[in-house]
Write a structure and sequence with these properties.
single chain; Rossmann fold; Serine Threonine Protein Phosphatase 5, Tetratricopeptide repeat; 50 helices; adenylate cyclase activity; Sig_transdc_resp-reg_C-effctor
Length: 911
């Protein structure tokens, strides 16, 4: 505009597809010119403009000529021809162009002139020729012509328009970025989420017109968009709509051949249509693959098809693709859109694809396929599996009531007692995942009482009865009788059902406080190097029971390995409940190993699945989080779970007992020792005759510590002694070490140093770093209190505790270590812990996985988040830690750096 105002006029072209923002830029040019004192002459062409001779010249100058009066300057002399346009007088193109130049030279004497035209592609031939001839004249006038051209439309004089464009400064507009869409959406809806931004950007392709329409209605295809696209298709050719519709129906299977057959058109006509549709940016053609340019275009193209019409078209498409040898999944995708017709082959294809979707974790899609398969016609006994698969899909999608209804329908079509037992087991598992443990227990028990399934099916039900007994607090002896009955008769063959029985026996032996070594053997035999997990999947009862028994027996690393496999399996299958159950159990194993930060990550992963209805082990998860938060000194964060815990606590079973234990821990952390002692005693009442084992919950130790703080040592000491006796009886190293530590703290008459040394010795065979650090600190403190002259051992113990407390961010333990070091005159190490402590739990998890060598995509898959979320967390990590790349993460986080494959190979060769 600056050059034009100085007398060097030109043409500016704004190009792009419909809706890209050309008209908005023209509006901006008009406003800027008007504000700068320019005269603005404006017009817009329509598809009908081609029928009006010299439509541009009429719109730009006829009103000015009318106002000036006929024959009045500047519409006199050569300019008279512009006044005559309205009366239909025929004029030559040369006279008209000369007249335009005559008028513009006069108009630009007082102020620069901006000539604006939108949708120039629809201008008539004469107007385009006039513009072409005006190009040279404009170079000597303070005049600027700005025009917009919609790509892909038919033009009356394409060669002329091409010459005009070659003489113009051309701006080709691109779609909006996701960030730009986010800015627009934030202005319109401040509460919008990143998911909303992603949805609108992906569906619209970033086309501003589509973006604006979708912002007004996120779900529907706006009628304005449908109308716009329908109009564009109608202008291209008589068959363009049919061709575009066939492409959108066929989806990834669209080719010239399949499109022609579906649309009923000749190949050459389809080829011409595709060329026009690609030019109009309705379709894309990439390496022979046809598709709608944006999802919104596909929706708009198909919007006016009735349900019946759509069903017929998809049935035709399925037939075409089937005959052409397309993949069964592709054909099934079209059959999904058809109307039921009692075709068993159609049902088989739909059922097959539904089960594939279920196995792949796409539960919503599995539900659609399976419901459509069932609707194909009458369902007989041989089709009970369809209801069973539908029930599993609905349960995995959090639709527990609908899932139970489907299982009831499956049972109604089942006569075989073993198949019925399997269905009841599936339904019971879903009830467990939903936290309805009593309902599950009643369902398992009722079937066992009413029927007599074969031994494998009976074992399957009894194992689940043990699981629900864990969660509801059933009598150990009653459960053992059930297991013995299920195990009687035919000898074990080491199959899945026998493994379930072994896992159940391991749990029951733990509840009875019997033989930790035997429990470990039973649990490992049950797991069978992954055979149990492979047979039942991550949602099964056996893996959870075996892993829990291993954790209680202090076989933490074996439990963690089993549960990590279960988590990976759940992630690969898209099983949220399976992920939550495995993560909750792994959180406990890691917590007892001393991996507090990692345990918090597992517990939070489990809690994130509550949106899918998962509540199976909610009390235990919340209890674990409370213990971890208290260990880190995050009392406020721990207390946030109090309301949820109150709703679960004071009931028998693992969840209720763990929740009560957590409330006791919170009371003790708040200094309410009376209340804490009462709650620990309540835990004792809840576990009596059910699961009274200090390896599960050392309630006697907790009550004794609360009592000693109340000055009631006479009541406290017997509790601590009995806790240690039971721990020795069971034989799990962690429980024994905890018992020794508690007795040392509570009994003033004991040899405290000897008890603590014994505790450290017991811990030497297992990985329990937090307890080891706590015992080491206790022992160092006791030695300092007794005036030990061997400061080297004291320092060694404190340094061990200092390292662990710093790495796991255990502030209370770290502060205690610091006080002892300062007391004996030793320097306190100031490492990276303070900066690392600034990381959130999510940031810490992402950072540690990145430090281990995983890519952003691998981290996203492992944590069930997007790659963008990983990138965002890492950017925060780098900023907080003051580093620039992931290569520094191992050193800052004090974890081993990943080794390259080359170094691994060299190491293998050298050793």
């Amino acid at each position: 505009m600056g050059r034009a105002a100085g007398g060097r006029g030109s043409l500016v072209a704004i190009e792009g597809p419909a809706g890209i923002g050309k008209s908005r830029l023209l509006t901006h040019a008009r406003e800027k010119a008007t504000a700068s004192g320019w005269r603005v002459l404006d017009t817009r062409c329509t598809p009908m403009s081609t029928t009006i001779d010299y439509c541009l010249l009429r719109d730009w100058f006829s009103m000015l000529a009318h106002r000036a009066g006929n024959g009045t300057h500047p519409f006199d002399g050569p300019g008279q021809v512009l006044s005559d346009l309205s009366d239909g007088t025929t004029r030559g193109i040369g006279d008209l162009v000369y007249g335009v130049r005559w008028v513009l030279e006069d108009l630009t004497q007082d102020q620069p002139v901006l000539l604006v035209v939108d949708d120039l592609q629809w201008a008539d031939v004469g107007s385009l020729q006039a513009l072409d001839l005006l190009v040279n004249a404009l170079q000597h006038l303070p005049c600027l012509i700005v025009y917009a051209v919609r790509t892909g439309e038919q033009v009356a004089a394409p060669e002329t328009l091409s010459r005009i464009q070659q003489s113009s400064k051309v701006f080709t507009l691109s779609p909006l970025s996701r960030g730009a869409v986010a800015v627009l959406l934030q202005d319109e809806s401040p509460e919008a989420t990143n998911d909303d931004v992603a949805h609108i950007h992906d569906v619209s392709g970033g086309v501003p017109f589509f973006v604006k329409e979708l912002m007004a209605d996120h779900e529907a295809v706006p009628e304005t968009v449908v109308g716009s696209i329908a109009g564009r298709l109608g202008r291209l050719s008589a068959t363009a709509t049919a061709t575009a519709r066939a492409v959108c129906v066929l989806g990834p299977a669209a080719s010239v051949g399949t499109v022609a057959e579906l649309a009923g058109l000749r190949l050459d006509h389809v080829a011409d249509d595709i060329s026009s549709l690609v030019a109009a940016q309705v379709l894309t053609l990439d390496h022979g693959r046809l598709s709608a340019r944006h999802p919104l275009i596909a929706h708009a193209v198909l919007a006016h098809m009735s349900s019946a019409e759509a069903a017929d078209v998809h049935a035709h498409a399925a037939d075409i693709l089937s005959r052409r040898g397309a993949a069964r999944a592709v054909v099934a995708g079209h059959l999904l859109q058809t109307m039921p017709a009692g075709d068993e082959d159609v049902r088989a294809r739909l059922a097959e694809q539904g089960e594939c979707a279920l196995a792949g974790g796409d539960h919503a899609m599995a539900i659609r396929y399976l419901e459509r398969a069932i609707a194909e016609g009458e369902v007989g006994p041989e089709d009970a599996r369809l209801y069973s698969a539908l029930a599993r899909a609905r349960a995995a999608d959090g639709q527990i009531e609908q899932a139970l209804a489907a299982w009831d329908l499956a049972a109604g079509h089942t006569e075989d007692i073993d198949d019925l037992a399997r269905l009841k087991a599936e339904a019971g598992d879903a009830l467990v995942m939903a936290g309805r443990h009593t309902d599950a227990q009643e369902a398992f028990g009722a079937l066992l009482d009413a029927e007599t399934p074969e031994r494998p099916a009976q074992q399957r039900l009894v194992a689940r009865l043990v699981l629900t007994g864990m969660l509801t607090g059933s009598s150990v002896e009653h459960l053992r009788e059930q297991v013995r009955a299920a195990s009687a008769g035919t000898g074990a063959d080491g199959g899945y059902d026998d493994r379930l029985t072994m896992a159940a026996q391991a749990v029951l032996s733990t509840f009875a406080c019997e033989n930790a070594a035997g429990v470990r053997r039973n649990a490992l035999d049950a797991a069978g190097d992954g055979l149990l997990l492979q047979a039942e999947g991550p949602e099964g009862a056996g893996t959870f029971m075996a892993a829990s028994a291993l954790t209680w027996a202090s076989a933490f690393e074996e439990s963690e390995a089993l549960l990590t496999s279960a988590i990976e399996r759940a992630q690969s299958r898209g099983s949220g409940p399976g992920l939550a159950t495995a993560a909750s159990a792994r959180g406990y194993a890691r917590m007892r190993m001393g991996m507090v930060t990692e345990a918090i990550g597992d517990f939070e992963s489990a809690l994130a699945q509550r949106s899918l209805g998962w509540k199976a082990h909610l009390g235990a998860v919340l209890s674990g989080l409370v213990e971890c938060r208290i260990a880190r000194g995050e009392i406020d964060l721990a207390a946030e779970h109090k309301a949820d815990l109150e709703g679960i606590a004071h009931q028998p079973g693992l969840n209720g007992t763990y929740a009560t234990w957590a409330l006791a821990d919170l009371a003790e952390a708040a200094g309410a020792h009376d209340h804490a002692a009462a709650l620990y005693a309540e835990v004792g009442q809840l576990v009596t005759d059910r699961m009274d084992n200090p390896a599960i919950l050392p309630w006697r130790s907790g009550e004794a510590l609360a009592l000693i703080r109340l000055g009631r040592s006479r009541d406290a000491v017997p509790l601590a002694a009995e806790n240690l006796r039971l721990a020795h009886r069971y034989g799990a190293p962690l429980a024994v070490a905890q018992g020794l530590r508690s007795l040392a703290a509570i009994d003033p008459t004991s040899d405290r140093v000897a008890l603590l040394r014994e505790a450290l010795e017991v811990l030497g065979d297992i990985r329990a770093l937090r307890l080891q650090a706590q015992v080491a600190t206790d022992l160092a403190g006791m030695m300092v209190l007794h005036g030990s002259t061997d400061n080297r051992e004291v320092v060694r113990l404190l340094r061990l505790a200092e390292t662990h407390a710093g790495f796991q961010e255990l502030r209370p333990l770290g502060e205690r270590v610091t006080r002892l070091l300062e007391r004996i005159g030793e320097p306190v190490k100031r490492g990276n812990s303070e900066t690392v402590n600034a990381l959130t739990v999510s940031e810490r998890r992402v950072a540690e996985l990145a430090a281990s060598g995983l890519s952003n995509r691998q981290i996203a898959q492992q944590l069930f988040v997007t790659v963008k979320a990983v990138e965002w967390h890492l950017s925060n990590v780098y900023r907080k830690l003051g580093i620039r790349s992931r290569t520094r993460l191992p050193a800052v986080l004090a974890v081993p750096a990943p080794r390259s494959p080359v170094l691994e190979q060299r190491s293998a060769v050298n050793h």
